[in-house]
Design a protein that fits this description.
two-stranded parallel ribbon, globular, alpha/beta, 6-stranded mixed sheet, about 20% strand
Length: about 280
C-alpha cells in the first residue's frame, strides 16, 4: 500500500495550484485522428503542466466528468485498475496502462474533510480510474509514480455543492496535493464539428473566462449560476453538464486565489479552454 506523506512545510512553495483541464475525446492522444494533428496543441499543453508546478505533487486528487454518484465518492483501492469507458476505438487503446498507485489514507482524509462541511461522502474501495483520469494523466505525469485518488461528481450536478466540495478539500493544497478537474469546457456531442456552434462556444468561453478571472466572491456567484451564461445550454445541454462541473470543484478549492485561462483553441469547430488558480 502506498502511504501518503503530506508536505509539512505549510503554505508557500509547497502550495499547489488547482487546474481545470480538457481531456480530449476518448483516447484521442494515443491513436490516429482525422485531421492528423487535431489534438497536438492540447497534448502539448498537458505535457507541459508538470514542469509548470512549484514542486512535484505529493499526491493528486482528480475529479473527472465520467464518474457520478448520489453522494461524493472517493477511490480507495491501493492499486486502481483502469476503466476503458470509451467505445469503438482501435484495439490498442484498450491496452493502455497507467499504473499509478492509489492513496487509501488520503482518500479517508478527503471523506473526512467533506463530512466536516456536511457533505456526505464515502470511500469506494473497488472503483478504478476512468479515461477522464488516465488519458490526461499519461501526458501530464507519464512516470505514473504519484499517488492518485479520484473524486466523483454528485449526480444532482448542483454547482453550489461542487463549489463547496472544493472549498472543503482546499487545505490539501498546503500538503502538496494537486487538485485537478478533468472535463471539457464545451461538451455538446451534437455541436462538435458543426460550424453553427463555433460562435456560440466562443461567446460562452468568453463568459467563462470572465467568471474565472473575477474576484473570488463574484467568481463563486457566477459559476454557481453558470446556466445564465450566454449559450450555456448550447454548450452543456441539460443533465449533460458533467464535463463542466469539475471546474466548480477546482474553483472552490482555489479559495481567494486568482484564476486565469492557460490554454484555449478551436477544436472540432468549438472553443475548448483550460484554467488555473493560484
Amino acid at each position: 500500500m502506498t502511504t501518503f506523506t503530506p508536505d509539512t512545510a505549510g503554505t508557500g512553495k509547497g502550495r499547489m495550484p488547482t487546474l481545470y483541464i480538457p481531456h480530449g475525446a476518448g483516447p484521442c492522444f494515443f491513436m490516429d485522428w482525422n485531421p492528423a494533428h487535431a489534438w497536438d496543441n492540447m497534448a502539448a499543453f498537458l505535457k507541459g503542466i508538470e514542469a509548470s508546478l512549484p514542486q512535484k505533487p505529493k499526491a493528486i486528487v482528480l475529479v473527472s466528468g465520467h464518474w457520478l454518484e448520489p453522494h461524493f465518492s472517493v477511490t480507495g483501492h491501493p492499486r486502481p485498475e483502469l476503466i476503458y469507458d470509451y467505445y469503438g476505438f482501435p484495439a490498442h487503446t484498450y491496452e493502455l496502462k497507467y499504473p499509478a498507485p492509489g492513496a487509501p489514507d488520503l482518500a479517508a482524509e478527503l471523506v473526512d474533510l467533506l463530512g466536516q462541511q456536511k457533505l456526505s461522502a464515502a470511500v469506494d474501495e473497488a472503483r478504478g480510474f476512468d479515461h477522464g483520469v488516465f488519458i490526461p494523466m499519461k501526458l501530464m505525469f507519464p512516470a505514473a509514480d504519484i499517488p492518485v485518488i479520484q473524486l466523483s461528481l454528485r449526480n444532482d450536478l448542483d454547482p453550489g455543492a461542487h463549489l463547496d466540495a472544493g472549498r472543503a478539500i482546499a487545505a490539501l493544497r498546503d500538503q502538496g496535493v494537486l487538485i485537478v478537474g478533468s472535463g471539457m469546457s464545451f461538451h455538446n456531442m451534437r455541436g462538435y464539428g458543426d460550424t453553427r456552434y463555433t460562435p456560440l462556444s466562443a461567446e460562452f468561453d468568453a463568459w467563462l473566462t470572465t467568471a474565472v478571472e473575477s474576484e473570488p466572491e463574484q467568481r463563486y456567484a457566477l459559476l454557481q449560476n453558470w446556466t445564465q451564461a450566454p449559450h450555456a445550454r448550447d454548450c452543456h445541454p441539460p443533465r449533460a453538464e458533467e464535463h463542466l462541473l469539475p471546474l466548480m470543484v477546482v474553483a472552490g478549492a482555489a479559495g481567494a486565489d486568482s484564476g486565469r485561462k492557460v490554454y484555449s483553441e478551436e477544436i472540432m469547430k468549438t472553443t475548448i479552454s483550460a484554467f488555473r488558480f493560484e
